[in-house]
Write a structure and sequence with these properties.
- This protein is of the alpha/beta class and 246 residues long.
- 33% of the residues lie in helices and 23% in strands.
- The chain contains six helices and twelve strands.
- It has a nine-stranded mixed β-sheet. The protein has a three-stranded mixed β-sheet with strand order 1-3-2, covered by helices on one side.
Length: 246
């Protein structure tokens, strides 16, 4: 090779090019870390209602490090995602000195047992919330399934001015719905939508005219349903008084 000038020239040119690239990379690496490109603003692209301003300001003060070029977007995105009400985070640099952050908040749909919440996508998350929400009870992996059924139950029961306050899916996959008036609907494991539709269709002419508090309605019959009325049960169990002559 040493007696081939063309080859030596090509090798020399290649080494010079590599050295220039390494030098350029080093210069850029040094340049982007200079205080010439400060990150002056972190801006939310739209307002949020459940993530507090104090939480956001504390996170930005604690987690934003570096300048416009060196700020670690992946680490910062993960920090925002850990906030209780944040479902999704996206961000981008905007020249010359701004970082734009878009936060998608969880939309609370229901309570999940006594320790968590369910969002409108049927996902379980943890956050503090003092508003009124229906209660979902079921196996650990059933939150999305219950959320889907809740939407149907809510729309179907609105026809008779009732609201589902608690929906339970038992380990044996049987459905129970407690209404806002305290009535529990036993729907069983099969044909739950058809059974509820039958109840709604018959409610105005059968259950409503009773004018009594309904404890439960068993909809697991083939062609009808059974109504449990606590007042009637108490009347049957009450001791009869003897009539006396005066």
């Amino acid at each position: 090779m040493w007696d081939r000038p063309d080859t030596l020239n090509r090798v020399a040119d290649f080494m010079i090019a590599c050295a220039m690239l390494l030098g350029l990379y080093g210069a850029l690496h040094y340049l982007v870390r200079l205080p010439l490109f400060p990150l002056r603003e972190v801006r939310l692209t739209h307002a949020v209602s459940l993530v507090s301003r104090d939480q956001l300001e504390l996170l930005i003060q604690r987690e934003v490090r570096g300048n416009f070029f060196t700020v670690d977007l992946a680490a910062l995105r993960a920090a925002f995602a850990r906030l209780p009400w944040v479902r999704n985070v996206s961000m981008r640099r905007t020249w010359p000195d701004r970082l734009e952050v878009t936060l998608e908040e969880h939309a609370p749909l229901a309570r999940w047992g006594d320790s968590a919440l369910v969002n409108s996508h049927g996902e379980v998350f943890s956050a503090a919330y003092d508003g009124k929400l229906p209660l979902f009870i079921g196996p650990a992996d059933a939150a999305k399934e219950i959320a889907i059924q809740h939407d149907y139950f809510r729309r179907a029961l609105a026809v008779i001015d009732k609201v589902p306050e608690q929906i339970q899916l038992t380990p044996r996959r049987a459905w129970q719905v407690r209404l806002d008036d305290g009535t529990t609907l036993e729907l069983g494991r099969e044909q739950i939508e058809a059974r509820l539709a039958r109840f709604v269709a018959a409610y105005r002419r059968t259950v409503e005219p009773l004018g009594r508090k309904i404890e439960a309605v068993d909809l697991r019959y083939a062609n009808g349903f059974a109504v449990r009325i606590p007042e009637l049960r108490d009347e049957r169990n009450a001791p009869r008084r003897r009539k006396t002559l005066s």
